[in-house]
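Postdoc handover notes: sequence design on the structure in folder B. Input tokens:
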């Protein structure tokens, strides 16, 4: 049964660009279809490109769908050629073995999305669905949309919170009482260790916050800088990603952190470990908050790859899409391997 958040309805799409209908291809000569289906059969036979999965080893090099498709499989034989003319395939074509989903189904669904997102997905539907399948295998609450329009309930507390003092020999903690969800710890530790090998210290300043603490914190900023400014830089109780237990404020928690070695490292490489910048520069009208170069949310490695390759690298775009479309994809997904969770 598709999962639905009991505390809110899906918000309207925030992008200002009006939806554009994705054109359906017309009839295609039989010879063209047969020529295209030959590499497709090889690709669908089990040689899907690996987008980093959910392991603890970071992907090296510039990680893009195109590079993955062209990268040799197993370090020896070359991977089968990727399909490059998806527009010429008929609506009845099945682009991925793990989904009971035709190209026609996907085209129809994406007609309601922005043209840029629709075109990006339809350029590489096989890679997109491969990552969607990996994301569907992750715990569902990793992708919960939390913003000013979709708050969490006051009594929501993650069930797998761990005290970070247990990891104080491996983490740099700027204060006491920090905790995070257990599920993200392997990737966090791997990321911190990789940064340290490169001479960069990733210190943690703020992690999980309860509803009550966020209520106090928001009022503190209202009293200090006024309601209007507080609304742009601090979340109301229930609207903070920190309540999820998967958001981290690193370093100084100030604007100059963007130019600090840790800030630059996270901006460049954090996504490889599943950590996504929540409030990027220039997107206050989308996220509702000013630029926060220190605030990263864990959305898993498949999640950050979906965000990076198909949603302009903007977390809000990806999570809004997931909030609207996850039931559609889950209903049509049939995993070929047992879930880790």
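Designed sequence:
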């Amino acid at each position: 049964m598709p999962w639905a958040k009991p505390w809110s309805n899906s918000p309207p799409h925030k992008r200002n660009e009006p939806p554009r209908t994705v054109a359906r291809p017309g009839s295609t000569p039989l010879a063209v279809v047969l020529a295209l289906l030959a590499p497709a059969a090889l690709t669908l036979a089990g040689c899907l490109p690996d987008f980093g999965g959910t392991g603890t080893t970071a992907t090296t090099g510039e990680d893009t769908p195109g590079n993955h498709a062209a990268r040799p499989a197993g370090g020896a034989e070359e991977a089968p050629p990727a399909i490059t003319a998806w527009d010429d395939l008929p609506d009845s074509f099945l682009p991925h073995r793990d989904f009971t989903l035709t190209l026609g189904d996907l085209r129809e669904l994406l007609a309601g999305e922005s043209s840029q997102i629709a075109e990006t997905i339809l350029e590489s539907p096989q890679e997109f669905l491969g990552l969607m399948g990996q994301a569907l295998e992750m715990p569902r609450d990793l992708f919960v949309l939390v913003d000013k329009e979709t708050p969490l309930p006051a009594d929501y507390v993650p069930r797998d919170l761990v005290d970070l003092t247990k990891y104080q020999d491996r983490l740099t903690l700027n204060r006491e009482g920090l905790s995070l969800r257990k599920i993200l710890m392997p990737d966090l530790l791997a990321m911190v260790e990789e940064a340290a090998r490169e001479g960069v210290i990733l210190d943690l300043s703020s992690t999980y916050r309860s509803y009550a603490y966020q209520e106090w914190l928001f009022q503190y900023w209202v009293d200090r800088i006024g309601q209007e400014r507080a609304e742009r830089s601090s979340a109301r109780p229930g609207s903070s990603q920190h309540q999820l237990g998967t958001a981290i404020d690193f370093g100084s928690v100030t604007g100059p952190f963007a130019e600090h070695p840790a800030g630059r490292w996270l901006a460049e490489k954090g996504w490889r470990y599943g950590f996504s910048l929540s409030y990027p520069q220039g997107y206050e009208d989308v996220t509702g908050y000013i630029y926060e170069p220190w605030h990263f949310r864990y959305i898993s490695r498949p999640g950050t790859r979906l965000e990076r390759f198909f949603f302009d690298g903007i977390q809000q775009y990806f999570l809004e899409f997931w909030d609207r479309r996850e039931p559609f994809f889950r209903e049509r997904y049939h995993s070929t391997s047992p879930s880790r969770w």
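Context for whoever picks this up: Confidence is low (pLDDT under 50) at residues 1-61, 66-81. Don't rerun without checking with the PI first.
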